[in-house]
């Protein structure tokens, strides 16, 4: 039978690794904003890290089955929040944030958790049978509707992060070859349609990725500067507060989406390797939790979270080193953004809830 959630079963190691990554991010935010009007931003990052830890503790005390049972209601609230957001006043040309006075809330970050829960709820009853067309249709709605609303904000990068959650769930329960073939054909046919709906600056980013030397001072400027920063860091880095690319403003939003380039410039290969190892340990721990979960529902929740984090880290790092086009996908826990930090810790809270209620061996 399932074990009741007990404090002694709390996964302090998992939470501890996440806190270490978040603290490194806060320190780097302070380093890159030192001597500027934005120097106080690191305090907000620390505050949201603290709130996130409390949130993870609270969520871990809730049986994840109770959360899964309310998946339809959570999905409805998430979609409603995204719809309401489209009628708010745009900030920097986008409608992504609800003002909260001392900070802002990015609804799409919390919707990631809603999708994790919804995917797990849909596929949890699959036993030895692969996903059916009915399951795939439900997943298409669960992922497609929020993704379309987020893309309208516009925030195509965040919309793309919803896909690996569903993909990981389907791969876990199994999928027939004919389903894969049909979905691949449908995806190929939708590429021209998707290109048509891209905004001009998004098309320019794709073109500049294919032809990087074509416009190094325009659409490919960000990617060029990030590679210069990473390369100039060398083996040991330039040191705390000494990153010229970020300090002199060559790297845009160096404390947010381009945090990896900023950190690599100051801490070099050694510091970057250390952070990548921390992410690796975090993901391994999540996979261990998924493997020892008490049921398939718990495994699906944790695998969905692991897939999301892996996708975000891989894409963000890939963007910085020129392997992928630039998109607005932050580096989890390190990039400035209270909503992203809070969402990640709440997701870890659900993973800890699964671990606390695993089967007795």
Number of E-state strands: 2
Q: Mean pLDDT score, rounded? A: 85
Total number of helices = 14
Anisotropy-based shape: globular
Could you give a short account of the major beta sheet?
Answer: 2 strands, antiparallel
Strand order of the largest sheet: 1-2
Q: Could you say which structural class the secondary elements and strand pairing correspond to? A: mainly alpha
Secondary structure layout:
Blueprint: H1 12-33, H2 41-60, H3 64-69, H4 71-85, E1 97-99, E2 104-106, H5 107-123, H6 133-151, H7 156-173, H8 177-197, H9 200-210, H10 221-233, H11 244-247, H12 259-291, H13 296-320, H14 338-356
Question: What does this protein structure show overall?
Answer:
- This protein is mainly α and 361 residues long.
- It has 14 helices and 2 strands.
- The protein has a two-stranded antiparallel sheet.
- Helix 4 packs parallel to helix 6.
